């Protein structure tokens, strides 16, 4: 099996290394060889960490995509438009595609699955969610026999690393972010990690596979975590809570609610014990009460491992037809199915705004259960049980009254 | 695809129901139908909970095994000798085999895998470990790319239910066992659950797949939990520990240590949060730092779900060659690789025996770090770090000095 690799960054290098290391073993086991024959890079002259790649490098994607010898494309260039075009071209021209690109999968899964089906090729993307955790394959297989109605989890290593550091080492958000960048967890531009797009994309992929519905990034409500401060963490810790950045999707078979927001876990939760760059995903269904999957959510070896697992599935033809079919209609989505009490910390523009908050909550159908005055401007509110739809509207309206603000749902287990 | 079902107990009934329920859906998806055409039972006249089975029942296994129309056997009669013979006969005569029978798999995995390979048929046993958790399939796939060196977990629902009840409801071991039996968790004869054979079998299966070694029941060291009493639980809770019945296997590639014994977890561990009949398995390797799988470890729907997943893999031919090959040589095994401090509670025959314990420990290479006198006869000891090999020998020698005794390794995380 001849492979064209698009991208030789961290994960691409890991994929190359694992395939080299396991080549003989896999050849012996399956009687077939895995050969990376061409690699797309931006700059051929750049110094590489690995040997034996120099002769394989090309800067022209179509040098790979049009090569009739190549059976399979591994797409690891990231980004959106180009990756989309290359993968589409590959599938349309009879090549299997394996990708770690959550951005493209979260927007175009349905199109690519249909294209793969039509061309009798594989389109696999295990590495796009949960790093090295074998997650999507068991999930889609179990989804054939289960009506899953909830999927949720800690899905972003960078934000989880930041929250872990803030809690354990008493750091500010920006200090913790700097550490994450220094250690290579966070991108130079961490916007997607801390504003929620990364988790939202992963949640779209998970919910699509679990519910068999065409759920894309536009269907996900998401709020960032960058307004949390050291004092919030401290206060919540004292109350027995840990903050996690969390994605959760629920369906009643008609509608879907999918939201990414900070949530609070009590110490007794397994999710509370998920530290640093680890991920944990839970799925609930009718036959299988609950499954949880835990492992490294990012990193060179973990992601590369997931990519090569997909490649092996194609090699031994165990990918075939092992797939869910998404419903034709896009589901209707809103935030009503996800409920809970909220913790809200708000720094008011003026201390006299305090009573406005009660009115505002009331207008949005939210009851405030407790209020605590931390300083003349700083308040903590605990709401009665409400839903994400109402909360979103409340948060929107609160904008005029506050200078800084953090809200997290209390996730009951 | 025509299926012969051996056994119509709890799991068998669940398998029948799931296949009926999903028949049309699977037919539409894969263009093939799953039909259970014959069912082996002990007593045809027994009243059944499900309809539509009466005409399929037979009391003669060879009525099924010799039927040339039948493609696949699902073995759910349990037990040892007969199940072994039927499965062997089925594979030798060109039928696929799916089983939940951990007793047979833990003893004869290597033989059955070779037989299946030779006859180009599938031999799958997802339901034998971890109930409904998709565990064995991801494990054996990841084992192709990883050198796993440790696998461990909570693998028995009955004992975990008993320990949960003892801790949460202040029950005696026998009261908790009675509750487990009343609720259908525990068998009428719970020996295998509480003396460790059940966990040992599952650990043998997991370690074989993870390490690619022929590890069978005889290679597992196991100690039961029935000597734990209410006061132990109480004392340990006060010290911040929970007791779990735990299987753990480690390899240094040459040797293997595999042991089933009570262990202590601190409150911060995810394993501590595994309650009732849930299971959790952790595996550590070179590329994937750690993976954890969590879900219902037993029960009609969970186990039936795992069985039908295997059947679908065969239906869509995604089982083929997706398998590990076990090393030819059996590995050498002892308890030396598994280390830790031990908590020991002992009721001495005579209070003067206290100093004998120090000598005995010393003779077995174990240092006692702390000793606490709870009553004239009852002592608690904490050892320095030692290994299972030494501990086994110490426990053996302690027999003459004690009337009752409980030892648990402190599992550090």
Give the largest chain-chain interface (CB within 8 Å): A-B, 49 and 49 residues
Percent range for β-strand residues of chain A:
15-25%
Q: Which structural class fits the helix and strand makeup of chain A?
A: alpha/beta
DSSP, total strands of chain A:
19
Biggest β-sheet description of chain A: 11 strands, mixed
Distance between the termini of chain A: 47 Å
Question: What is the CATH topology descriptor of the largest domain in chain A?
Answer: Dihydrodipicolinate Reductase, domain 2
Q: What's the CATH first level of the largest domain in chain A? A: Alpha Beta
Shape of chain A: globular
CATH superfamily placement of the largest domain in chain A:
Dihydrodipicolinate Reductase, domain 2
Q: Cα-atom Rg of chain A, whole angstroms?
A: 23 Å
Oligomer: homodimer
The tally of structural domains of chain A comes to: 3
Number of helices of chain A: 13
CATH architecture of the largest domain in chain A: 2-Layer Sandwich
List low-pLDDT spans of chain A. Answer: none
Helix content of chain A: 25-40%
Question: How would you state the average pLDDT of chain A, rounded?
Answer: 94
Domain Homoserine dehydrogenase catalytic (chains A, B): 134-312
Domain Aspartate/homoserine dehydrogenase NAD-binding (chains A, B): 7-126
Active site (chains A, B): 202 (proton donor)
Protein name (chains A, B): Homoserine dehydrogenase
């Amino acid at each position: 099996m001849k492979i064209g690799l698009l991208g030789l960054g961290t994960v691409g290098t890991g994929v190359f290394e694992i395939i080299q290391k396991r080549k003989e073993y896999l050849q012996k086991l399956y009687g077939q060889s895995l050969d990376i024959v061409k690699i797309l890079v931006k700059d051929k002259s750049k110094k590489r960490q690995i040997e034996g790649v120099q002769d394989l490098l090309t800067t022209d994607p179509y040098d790979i995509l049009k090569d009739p010898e190549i059976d399979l494309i591994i797409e690891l260039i990231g980004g959106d438009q180009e990756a989309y075009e290359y993968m589409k071209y590959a599938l349309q021209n009879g090549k299997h595609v394996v990708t770690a690109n959550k951005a493209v999968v979260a927007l175009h899964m349905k199109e690519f699955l249909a294209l793969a089906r039509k061309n009798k090729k594989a389109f696999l993307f295990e590495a796009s969610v949960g790093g090295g955790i074998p997650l999507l394959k068991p999930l889609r297989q179990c989804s054939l026999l289960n009506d899953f109605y909830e999927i949720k989890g800690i899905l972003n290593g960078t934000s989880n690393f930041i929250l872990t550091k803030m809690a354990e080492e008493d750091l500010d958000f920006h200090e913790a972010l700097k550490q994450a960048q220094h250690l290579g967890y966070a991108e130079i531009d961490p916007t997607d990690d801390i504003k929620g797009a990364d988790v939202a994309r992963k949640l779209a992929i998970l919910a699509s596979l679990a519910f068999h519905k065409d759920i894309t990034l536009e269907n996900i409500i998401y709020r960032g975590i960058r307004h949390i401060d050291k004092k919030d963490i401290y206060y919540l810790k004292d109350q027995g809570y840990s903050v996690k950045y969390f994605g959760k999707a629920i369906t009643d078979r008609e509608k879907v609610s999918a939201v990414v927001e900070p949530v609070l876990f009590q110490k007794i939760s397994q999710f509370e014990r998920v530290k640093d760059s680890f991920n944990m995903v839970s799925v609930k269904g009718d036959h299988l009460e609950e499954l949880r999957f835990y492992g490294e959510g990012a990193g060179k070896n973990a992601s590369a491992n997931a990519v090569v697992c997909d490649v092996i599935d194609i090699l031994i033809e165990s990918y075939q037809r092992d797939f869910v079919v998404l419903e034709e209609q896009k589901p209707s989505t809103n935030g009503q199915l996800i409920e809970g009490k909220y913790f809200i910390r708000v720094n008011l523009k003026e201390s006299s705004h305090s009573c406005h908050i009660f009115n505002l909550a009331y207008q949005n159908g939210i009851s405030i259960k407790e209020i605590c005055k931390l300083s003349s401007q700083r308040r903590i509110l605990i709401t009665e049980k409400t839903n994400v739809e109402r909360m979103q509207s409340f948060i929107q309206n609160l904008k005029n009254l506050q200078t800084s603000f953090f809200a997290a749902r209390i996730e009951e287990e």
